[in-house]
Amino acid sequence: MCGILAVLGCSDDSQAKRVRVLELSRRHVLLKHRGPDWSGLYQHGDNYLAHQRLAIIDPASGDQPLFNEDETVVVTVNGEIYNHEELRKSLTLTGHKFRTGSDCDVIAHLYEEHGEDFVDMLDGMFSFVLLDTRNNTYIAARDAIGITSLYIGWGLDGSVWISSELKGLNDDCEHFEVFPPGHLYSSKTGGFKRWYNPQWFSEAIPSTPYDPLVLRRAFENAVIKRLMTDVPFGVLLSGGLDSSLVASITARYLAGTKAAKQWGAQLHSFCVGLEGSPDLKAAREVADYLGTVHHEFHFTVQDGIDAIEDVIYHIETYDVTTIRASTPMFLMSRKIKSLGVKMVISGEGSDEIFGGYLYFHKAPNKEEFHEETCRKIKALHQYDCLRANKSTSAWGLEARVPFLDKEFINVAMSIDPEAKMINMDEKRIEKWILRRAFDDEEHPYLPKHILYRQKEQFSDGVGYSWIDGLKAHAELHVTDRMMLQAGNIFPHNTPVTKEAYYYRMIFERFFPQNSAKLTVPGGASIACSTAKAIEWDASWSNNLDPSGRAALGVHNAAYKKNTGPVGSVKLAPNIIDNVPRMMDISASELVIQG
Amino acid sequence: MCGILAVFGCVDCSQAKRARILELSSRLRHRGPDWSGLHSEEDCYLAHQRLAIVDPASGDQPLYNEDKSIIVTVNGEIYNHKALREQLKSHKFNTGSDCEVIAHLYEEYGEDFVHMLDGMFSFVLLDTRNKSYIAARDAIGITPLYIGWGLDGSVWFASEMKALSDDCEQFMAFLPGHIYSSKNGGMRRWYNPPWWSELVPSTPYDPLVLRHAFEKAVVKRLMTDVPFGVLLSGGLDSSLVAAVASRHLIDSEAYCQWGSQLHTFCIGLKGSPDLVAAREVADYLGTRHHEFYFTVQEGIDALEEVIYHIETYDVTTIRASTPMFLMSRKIKSLGVKMVLSGEGSDEIFGGYLYFHKAPNKEEFHEETCRKIKALHLYDCLRANKSTSAWGLEARVPFLDKEFINVAMSIDPKWKMIDRDNGRIEKWVLRNAFDDDEKPYLPKHILYRQKEQFSDGVGYSWIDGLRDHANKQVTDSMLANANFVYPENTPATKEAYYYRKIFEKFFPKNAARLTVPGGPSVACSTAKAVEWDASWSKNLDPSGRAALGVHAAAYEDTK
Q: Which Gene Ontology molecular-function terms are recorded (chain A) (predicted)?
């Protein structure tokens, strides 16, 4: 990932302003973490385009900003354009000459050729700002789902600011917002236009019958195109279904890629957890099966707590689930980067597309099921995309997410949602159609017991004591009196737990502006559901723990009514070696939570 | 390099304090991007930001002795750690880190072990058994270290000023070669080599002894578990480092892991003298050579950051640090974590052009001693902080303790510049590597005079800096400079400009006192300005043409 910052029309072209823009874009605490490899600043009158580069493609010559042939069109990009070679070919035919080997170089030329209507031709993840110096107009755009982060703000002097992270503009803008994913901002109209317009966006119920092979191919393509890299890379492997599939496909196709020629055909996989955590064991098993070079990172609850302030500063949210899950990812990213790895492939998005969260068990019908998946995908940029992008970018590591491939989403979201519904009588657990698609007897992608296992959700996988530790720490630092006044202190998105209050305090310290708190979503949720889906079960509205552990009573074990002994969470380590361990643990958890 | 921060005896031991220490420690994260550690023990905190070079997998800090009663946070490399481990046979080691020996040496020898360490280091060690602590810095000050005092009676140590300047009432640079002990609350010099007294030595010059000493210094610095390279400007010093490193790479540990191809790096404005000179050396040695270009505008855009990182307003240092700072970022982006660099040779051998005017060998020798003692304020500070800004480590073989002892014991008459006998500056070093059978470098490179200071990156660099400063600093600002900045008053607009930026980041009086000042010509000490009457009138801190002693100038006068 890179970091971009654009200040447009700020009616100040002095050295002091230049220094301020530089400071915002690169002072050690701001966007430099996103792009540690090089900085660029382009100034045209009172327009500034700044760039902090993480060099993944063409490290030698692809420094930004990038230009068209006569340098009249300037563009600063954060992202990866997977189909850039194809686009180059067609642009070369119409006479365009490229200055660098950077995948992002196509954007300036596409604009020259097609005007503002080219964003849908880009296959990848990206946010960019493009300045046309011929008529002093500019456009900005963000990828379909919002895998890359982007914010827009307005200064009192009439300037428009666009930045990869909130911290690039919050001090200098009077008002700022999340730049909506799949949208284009044009200075000509001064407004947003949605360029991303897939079939599923209307939330109409699709009817294409489920074809496992079509789904498999679509996903394989999505993974393969993400192997485009000139630097060492790896996969994040938690041992769950999604990351295991990513690892399995990568391992299978790595040998033929350019990446393998440069960095060897040995796949590196990475997992983080408290010592002895479920994820570490599950991932090790998958890594052994696939024969990857597997790296395990251990952290302690204290390490995690010490990192919380940093995490909130980087992730720019006070959402409890996101912070819980971001912290281990944040710690792991640092370790991964220290090994010289600059890019990882990760499994985000699958739970949204396939309704993989446990609360989907209670979806009353396929219509509700489908609409909830659509809502979840549309909200991804505020949750898992934000987490995956910013936790890794904090250390100059790039995360690629094949489940959020545009083509793949189209295929997966056109399937009749009947097939996605959970049906325990027919042994269809959550994400069954994805599991089934990779159930290949001849050339197995994964052993069956892994392919069909239910894994810990949310942050439980890194170790049960992680969330307990966070809660205990927050208890110590947030008093009952503070909670009593929470509604008065934080009238917007009022924290309802001490943990939430604790995170909110830290967030407000870094981002005190009113606009900042409005960039974070709120509202009622059960185990990551949207507010709408809470209606699915009457009992849920009484238990609004934002995370998933045992709140739902829908895990496999619960169906079996195998409730096990009542015990404290500390029992978990004793049970952990039992088979099937994960189910047992969830069962006892269930009882604890009542 | 890593970043260390330690605080002892603060009154407040709350979560807020812990969070504050973490925040301050993270100001040093550029130095150690790979991992953070914090050990707190009652009112004592030892924080560490790690750059993993040796034993990346298990060497996270702070480090401990066997029963964890001794805790140490270290920034540095201990080149003789294996030999020391051998001596500490009865001790059990927890990690493969080279720095772990420190905790065990302390257990074994108490406070008197620092001289046993061969390397560059700053460390803080806490003995929890009696709640005492010590801090120490390497002989020459290759690694930076600051000490500060809080109003609550706390004592602070940090690798960079920025980690303690906001929270300390008073602070200063920790003296190189010294140890601070809480038992007596004071500093004591542990580094006590023969040359320190500045007595003129008499050992005759033996080229082979000098050569072997330098080769050993380079070879021991090839200890690494990560990819590395050499900074190559094409001048004598960096070319010798590259030549020796490429010759001995094949026998080193690093070779087994990272291959026998030596990577070399050079930066300059396009077409600059350094780029041409370095390319020639790289071609001769057959290294994988990487050239980086920067523009004057890129350099100017980086100035604020450079000053924030380097923590000085010294003009020559800032000029020279900026290209090094930009290059370090590029080197790091290639995955390289450590580089060897040629700092220190000009001080040891009197390589600066003003040494041409040294009146006699006594003055010559004393000036080299003064220059070495001041290195921590100039080139060590530049080399360490420019690279550490991007998590890159610089190792400097010329500042090897053994090597300095050998080089500084040579009768200085051999170092004197003697044009009649064809001895240009640093002749003893050049001659030591003049091997006809297996040449280290071609003769014309071995004996060439190169651009000094920042001219090598391109002449327009310094001109561009001056032009920029002239635009930003008005005549009336400069006229009132002695009122605004009564201490180390900037004498030029360029100096004023840097000073302004420095004061923005480090507004406290203690901060400006950490930076040296006083008259200088082309990097001389104030004392050596007396060597030529004309110099005191022309105090340009840089070297170009100020002296009239470059070979070209000799020819002009003929």
A: asparagine synthase (glutamine-hydrolyzing) activity; ATP binding
Q: How far is B308 from chain A (nearest CA, A)?
A: 9
**Chain B closest-CA separation from residue A150 CA (Å):** 24
Burial A45-69 (b: 16+ CB within 10 A, else e): ebbbbbbbbbbbbebeebbbbbbbe
Question: Among B366, B401, B355, B371, which Cα is nearest to B200's?
Answer: B366
**Residue B2 annotated among the catalytic residues of the structure:** yes
Q: Does A55 touch chain B (CB under 8 A)?
A: yes
Of B19, B305, B330, the CB nearest to A38: B330
d(CA B214, CA B425): 18
Residue A575: pLDDT band by 50, 70, 90 thresholds?
very low
Name the residue facing B35 among A23, A36, A335 (closest C-beta): A335
Q: Does B471 touch chain A (CB under 8 A)?
A: yes
Question: Residues of A comprising the binding site for L-glutamine?
Answer: 103
Provide the token pair at B212: 């072997």
Structure token pair of residue B393 = 């480590």
> Tokens standing for B373?
């003692």
The Cα–Cα gap between A247 and A287 comes to 8
CB environment B484-508: b (16+ within 10 A), e (fewer): ebeebebbbbbbbbbbbbbbebbeb
Q: For residue B434, what are its two tokens?
A: 């003049």
Interface predicted TM-score (ipTM) = 0.75
Q: Residue B8 in contact with residue B185, Cβ under 8 Å?
A: no
A334 and B34 within 8 Å at the Cβ level: the answer is yes
Contact B334 A337 (CB under 8 A): no
Q: Does B33 touch chain A (CB under 8 A)?
A: yes
Mutate to test the interface with A, among B305, B393, B473 (most CBs of A within 10 A): B305
User: Identity (one letter) of the amino acid at A550?
Assistant: A
CB pairs under 8 A between A and B: 63
A194-241 residue pLDDT tens: 999 999 999 999 999 999 999 999 999 999 999 988 888 999 999 999
pTM here is 0.84
Does residue A284 have a pLDDT over 70?
Answer: yes
Of B15, B329, B390, the CB nearest to A477: B15
* Residue A79 and residue A143 in contact, taking contact as beta carbons nearer than 8 Å: yes
Burial A377-387 (b: 16+ CB within 10 A, else e): bbbbbbbbbbb
B338, B383 in Cβ contact below 8 A? no
Kindly state whether A339 is in contact with chain B, defined as any CB-CB distance less than 8 angstroms: yes
Instruction: Check residues B511 and A592 and name the one with the higher pLDDT.
Output: B511
